């Protein structure tokens, strides 16, 4: 069942009008109407709210969401970039920040830099800040840049756990080689990540909840360098 069909079915099963569901979600009736005809799709915060209200797993909602708006969750088209580069990227990510790798000499004033080199490939992750941060990950092949990803995020609450974030980022996969998995849960922490696009050109958003309270968020985007 498509996302728009499932939403209509769930809404009607509760005997709700579009106006009433919009009121509950804190949005306009027009927004609900557009969801139900496939003209637009909810962001991750609204997906979480819908899953909690209708008591349907967010995984099921995300899968339907992926099917209809072509989110890159299980089937990212990575054939446009060398598989060796993707495999290298995964090892680099798991070895540097996610793997508690040591920082190298700062490339900019007060920047945090991590580097991983393997054969002709080089990976550099450089970022500024801490609780509110911005940075870039990039790959070079024979000193020629071939891929990069910019990111910017912030810690929203003291309940945030850097250890949990690193655990999540260490689970990066070839099917989804950006940040963490689409969903991950451990104890009272929940991680969600949405990707739109392909490895050549993409954007995404990740967030962490603690006891259903959002404690961290990060936006990212990037693609192949030509």
UniProtKB/TrEMBL annotation:
MF terms (GO), sorted A to Z: DNA binding
Pfam (any one): HTH_3
PROSITE patterns reported in the protein's UniProt record: HTH_CROC1 (PS50943)
Keywords assigned: DNA-binding
HTH cro/C1-type domain mapped to chain residues: 7-61
InterPro entries: Cro/C1-type_HTH, DUF5680, Lambda_DNA-bd_dom_sf
Alphabetized Gene3D superfamilies for the sequence: lambda repressor-like DNA-binding domains
SUPFAM superfamilies per UniProt: lambda repressor-like DNA-binding domains
UniProt name for this protein: HTH cro/C1-type domain-containing protein
């Amino acid at each position: 069942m498509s996302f728009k069909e499932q939403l209509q079915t769930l809404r009607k099963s509760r005997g709700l009008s579009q106006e009433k569901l919009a009121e509950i979600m804190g949005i306009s009736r027009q927004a609900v109407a557009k969801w139900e005809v496939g003209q637009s799709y909810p962001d991750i915060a609204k997906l979480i709210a819908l899953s909690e209200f209708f008591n349907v797993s967010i995984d099921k909602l995300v899968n339907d969401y992926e099917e209809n708006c072509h989110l890159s969750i299980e089937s990212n088209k990575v054939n446009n970039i060398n598989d060796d580069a993707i495999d290298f990227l995964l090892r680099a990510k798991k070895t540097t920040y996610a793997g508690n790798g040591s920082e190298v000499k700062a490339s900019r004033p007060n920047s945090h830099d991590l580097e991983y080199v393997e054969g002709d490939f080089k990976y550099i992750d450089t970022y500024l800040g801490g609780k509110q941060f911005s940075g870039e990950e990039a790959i070079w092949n024979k000193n020629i840049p071939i891929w990069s990803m910019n990111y910017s995020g912030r810690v929203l609450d003291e309940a945030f756990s850097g250890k949990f974030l690193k655990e999540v980022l260490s689970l990066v996969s070839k099917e989804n080689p950006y940040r963490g998995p689409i969903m991950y849960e451990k104890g009272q922490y929940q991680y969600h990540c949405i990707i739109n696009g392909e490895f050549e050109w993409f954007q995404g958003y990740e967030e962490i909840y603690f006891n259903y309270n959002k404690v961290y968020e990060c936006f990212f985007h990037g693609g192949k360098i030509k």
